[in-house]
Request: fold
Amino acid sequence: MSLKIINKEDLTEFVASLQNQYEVTGPVARENKFVFARIADPAQLRLDYSTTILPPKKTFLPQAETLFKFEMSGDFAAQPVFDPQPRVLFGAHTCDIHALKLLDGAFKKDYRDAHYFSRRDHTLIVGIECLTPCDEFSFCKSMGTLSATDGYDLHLTDLGS
Reply:
């Protein structure tokens, strides 16, 4: 593992550079709540969020998707449709990283979900180290998910000023 320091004022530029090659999803403010959504402008990214009403798993499990295309002329044939769009899931809390690792295990246990892994294999995860639980109702500390040692491609820790 290598350690690098990025200044907070350079983070917006870093996210913008990712957008040149990837679809970037992260926590954004919606009214008085936070959701994981596609980032159109790097200034939308809110890493100071507590919890979100829409979790980062929706990056891999969208509410609607095309799974197959059917050819009805001649021989009936169904072709799977995959989504190979390169993505970055930016700003996942450590508890979310643990949850995504559980999803990975569930979707490859008996019958590997090719559609889930098509997205998962094309997604980089940028995690955020949670130095304290999000609120008094969070149980991440007691469940051992307040910190993560794997399950991400890049992990950020706020070092203050």
Summary: Residues 94-108 form the longest helix (15 residues). The CA atoms of residues 97 and 150 lie 8 Å apart. The first strand starts at residue 23 and ends at 30. The radius of gyration is 18 Å.
